[in-house]
Amino acid sequence: MLQFITNAPDKDSVIKQVQQVLAGGCKWIQLRMKNAEHNEIVETSKVLKPMCAEQEAIFVIDDHVDICKELALDGVHLGKNDMDVKEARELLGEGCIIGATANTLEDVLSHSPVYVDYIGLGPFRFTTTKQNLSPIIGLDGYRSIATVAASTGKNLPLVAIGGIEESDIDSVMATGVDGIAVSGALINASNTTNATKQMIEKLDSILNQRLSQKGLE
Question: Which listed residue, of 9, 102, 146, 164, carries a Cα 20 to 30 Å from 109's Cα?
Answer without folding.
Answer: 164
